[in-house]
Amino acid sequence: QVQLVESGGGLVQPGGSLRLSCAASRSIFGLNTMGWYRQAPGKQRELVAAMTSGGSTVYADSVKGRFTISRDNAKNTVYLQMNSLNPEDTAVYYCNHRSGSGNYNYMIGFWGQGTQVTVSS
Q: pLDDT > 70: what percent of the chain?
């Protein structure tokens, strides 16, 4: 069992930046993937970015070049730096922990409670 707590969401103007954090309740060492997903109203939850314990990353096409995922295993924390935000990025962002890697279209593993990100002028 892993409990995940997200923080860092909020209201930001278009073009602005936010950094999300996700703290895990136990060590995230080992073969696993930490990721960020988002769900906008009326839409399905989708992968934003994921990072394996080996350092491999995957990003949604819509965020490539704007978002960066990183993890600090010593602090059991994963981050999502979001730059050049636009209104289409508005959603609830969820942290995810899963064993192994791959199959990112499957909503498996452990989830945080979500943090709201709203991009609006």
A: 100
